[in-house]
Amino acid sequence: MQQNSTNASTDTFWALKPEDAFKNISCSSNGLSTKEANARLKQYGKNSFKAKSNSSAIILFLLQFKSPITILLIAAALLSMALGDISDTVIILLIILVSSILGFWQEKGAANAVEELLKMVQIKCRIVRDEKEMELPVENAVPGDIIVLSAGDVIPADSLLIESKELFIDEAAFTGETYPVEKSVGIAAVDAPLSKRSNSLFMGSHVISGRAKALVIKTGKQTEFGKISDKLGTKIPETDFEKGIRQFGYMLMEITLVLVIIIFAINVLLHKPALDSFLFSLALAVGLTPQLLPAIISVNLSVGARAMAKQQVIVKRLSSIENFGCMNILCSDKTGTITEGKVTLKDALDIEGNHSEKTLQFAWLNATMQQGFKNPIDEAIRSSYTGDGKGFTIQAEIPYDFIRKRLTIQVKNATDNFAITKGALNSILTICDEAETTAGAIPMKDKLEAIRTEYTTLSAAGLRVLGVAYKKGSADKNFTRADEINMTFLGFITLFDPPKKDAQQTIANLHNLGVSLKIITGDNELVAASFAKQVGMENPVILTGAQMREMSDRALFEKAPRTNIFAEVEPNQKERIILFLKRSGNVVGFMGDGINDAPALHAADVGISVNTAVDVAKEAAAIVLLNQDLNVLITGIVAGRKTFANTMKYIFMASSANFGNMFSMAGASLFLPFLPLLPKQILLTNLLTDFPEMAIATDRVDMASVSKPQRWNIKLIKRFMIVFGLLSSVYDYLTFGVLLLLMKENEKVFQTGWFTESVISATLIVLVVRTRLPFFKSLPGKWLAIATSLIVLFVLSIPLMPFAGLFGFVRLPLSYYGWMMLIISCYIISAELAKRWFYKKLQNQS
After folding, report:
1. C-alpha angle 116/120/126, rounded to 5°?
2. 158 DSSP β-pair partners
3. Helix, strand or coil for residue 167?
4. Binning pLDDT at 50, 70 and 90, where does residue 593 land?
């Protein structure tokens, strides 16, 4: 149900005080009860833009009849009924209905499978219900809910701030502003533009840093994001594969329509019945256009998605499977993918490099007291200190952000008051004017060189190094960003995250699959070089963020593909790296899980995240791993390539068979005094050949098809279509010659004989074109083999069945079966030889 209009004053909710907003929406700062929330969910509907599933099912079924040719055929069949040919009309309409139900059932099953998979990686938000904070799917948020936000969270709805602390929001989707916007509780002018509503949060933005509580005012299509999506649409840009499929469909339909018009004209000129000729032409168009192509692709992709799910890889957008299979460069941070993902504290040191209990204690207070985004570094520091907090409580906090690269808290106890800052060493040094030694504080300039030397030594040993600084605070004044100056440098925190035992083999496995791994890390060049040695990277090319800032676009375009490790990378540089790698002609995957990874995830051909990632990263990704491990990703890549390979099998088979049948039909119309096949026979041919094709999704795939990235190639498809289409026509004409010249059969026997040969040969040839290997060395999957066998047996038995006469079939002479067996055997052998020649020539050209 669509959301009803709320109270008119909530249309300008940014001009309301929180207490007035509570009154207008009939709620309180304690949130809603579960009962009230459920009632509002019925009133306002899901916090989503998606259509209801029941209406989608009806629309999906009706879309099976959307082809203009199908509609024309139905109309012509009804006209035929009006003229008295009731039995043929019923048969034609029944075949169209069965074919459409088959397509609907397959596509609906695929959609349901994807829906179930998406539930595993739902984006959730923290909502106060029954006066308790709980995690619920974003779709369940309703006006009146109180939401709790921290760094990395997606804003689930248009909301009014009721509490905030150092809150910075990324609103680039609305304002185009690349820098985070600071938000705080207050009142904005009624006519304030969106960019000036500093007390409001909008669906589609996300938290960069800080904490907040907010009152949900508008959900779903009533939000600002919903209004934009209504006007501009929310269509995801199509992949190369989707574009290729669309072009392929149009190409095949254009060829079909031209030939159909020619065939209709020839039949009319030869004085064959006009209505029969029209029905014949339309049936031919329906039978030979790839009307089941969307269903086949949906089934292939959904089967692939389920296979990938078994490998703990969840596909959020089916179309991304193709890019996943084509991917030849994977960019990833090393933490948790190549390393163990368990950051361990090595030591806490003073500026001389000696163990310092004070440095450890202050770092522990900073890590323990901070209330922002939880991270492995703070977890490592917290678990490594066995002392106590000495009665300290937090007084103020300035959360970490990617511009300052540091986190500050102010703590106090009965006797002391300190501001403690922890972060990237260079960022810490810029705010310090003193350094603490065993003899006391001295000017920073006297120790700066020694500090940098110690930092270089520690980094070269492969350790990640953070700086810790502090200064005296004031009990009656909270510490602010402006106070992050004149601090005293205390010492270093050193951490390490060792590579996984199988990291070297994993990188080699990726390389064997034709995927080059490029590490993008915030660690400095020395740490990156040390890590490269540990995982067996020989003489890696390392490029730093500072070097990239000095490089022109042309220079980075040349350098990026040859670089192994990008070190000291700033958040905004990740997207630039991805874009230049793509511009070099690569299909690029990016694996990220942080707040600052969303732009790069969007920019990549394949955005990959993990289920434990922050919401904004998980939402931006097309593929989500349930386990942060490159080995899981490798199995997913193989599954994705199998899906792509099976889809291409149908493309090759459909294009060649359709083109060949059209060519045969056009030629037969020139010399036959009757229709080569009746309209109902053509439609039955189409229906029967569809069944084995549905099983292609579960077919086995040769290792050659998954050993390297595969890409869409419409020129290759055209060449395949012409070569194998013409080859099939040769054997169609041989069948014509046997039936007309050797056996001198009549119209009914000719139609029955060609129908039988056409369906059986089209069904069996799938076993040849499905693999580049000799067909007897690459056996089909179980379901494809069963479907093929059943169709062959069914077609052979049709002339003997009671309903054969309804379709215009008659019993065939026994001698014909011998000729047919010979023709089909020769066809299969010829196709096998043609396949070997075709791929050998292709390899030589490559």
Report:
1. 125
2. 218
3. strand
4. confident
* Rounded Cα–Cα distance for residues 449 and 577 (Å): 33
Contacts of 459 (CB under 8 A, 6+ apart): 465, 524, 526, 527, 530
Handedness of CA 755, 758, 761, 764 (dihedral sign): negative
Measured between alpha carbons, how far is 379 from 344 in angstroms, rounded to an integer?
A: 9
pTM comes to 0.74
Contact 37, 29 (CB under 8 A): no
Q: What are the pLDDT digits (tens) for 640-684?
A: 888 888 888 888 887 788 778 777 877 787 778 887 888 788 778
Segment 220-241 shows an average pLDDT of 66
Q: For residue 15, what are the CA distances in angstroms to 223, 224, 413, 642, 665? A: 16, 16, 40, 55, 72
CB 181 within 8 A of CB 197: no
- Distance, CA of 593 to CA of 600 (rounded, Å): 11
Element (H, E) at 252: helix 240-269
How many distinct helices (H) and strands (E) make up the chain?
A: 28, 23
List beta partners, residue 609: 624
Residue 151 structure tokens: 């760094």
Residue 694 in contact with residue 102, Cβ under 8 Å?
yes
3-state secondary structure of 136: strand
Structural domains of the chain sorted by starting position, each given as residue range(s) with its CATH number in brackets: 8-47+141-232 (2.70.150.10), 59-112+238-307+637-845 (1.20.1110.10), 313-340+500-626 (3.40.50.1000), 353-492 (3.40.1110.10)
pLDDT of residue 39 exceeding 80, the answer is yes
Instruction: Write the DSSP symbol of residue 349.
Output: E
Q: For 171, phi and psi rounded to 5 degrees?
A: -115, 25
Q: Residues 576-580: what's their mean pLDDT?
A: 93
Local confidence band at 4 (pLDDT 50, 70, 90 cut-offs): very low
Place of tokens 């075709």: 838
pLDDT tens column, 372-402: 666 788 889 998 888 777 788 889 888 887 7
Cite the active site residues.
333
DSSP category for residue 52? P
Mean of pLDDT over the chain: 83
State how far the alpha carbon of 404 is from the alpha carbons of 119, 378, 427, 472, in Å: 37, 17, 7, 21
Rounded (5°) CA angle 65-67-68: 115
pLDDT at 792 over 90: yes
Yes or no: say if 765 and 731 are a contact pair by the CB < 8 Å rule: no
Cα(832)–Cα(773) distance, integer angstroms: 9
Share of the chain above pLDDT 70, in %: 86
Q: What is the pLDDT of residues 63-122, one digit of tens each?
A: 767 655 566 556 656 766 665 667 667 776 776 777 677 667 666 665 666 566 566 667
Closest CA to 534 of 568, 501, 495, 494: 501
Amino acid at 528: A
pLDDT of residue 2: 39
Helix spans in 423-543 (H): 425-429, 448-460, 503-512, 525-534
- Is residue 615 within 8 A of residue 154, CB to CB? The reply is yes
User: Would you call 274 exposed, middle or buried from its count of C-beta atoms within 10 A (0-12, 13-18, 19+)?
Assistant: exposed
Q: How many CB atoms sit inside 10 A of residue 131's CB?
A: 11
845: Cβ–Cβ under 8 A, 6 or more apart, which residues?
A: none
**In a 3-state reduction of DSSP, which class is residue 399?**
coil
Strand-strand pairing, 464-472 and 487-496: antiparallel
Question: Looking at residues 565-588, what average pLDDT do you find?
Answer: 89
| Token pair listed for 130 | 């029954």
The pLDDT of residue 55: 47
Question: pLDDT band at 232, cuts 50/70/90?
Answer: very low
* Residue 341 near residue 321, CB atoms below 8 Å: no
475-489, 645-659, 807-821: least confident range? 645-659
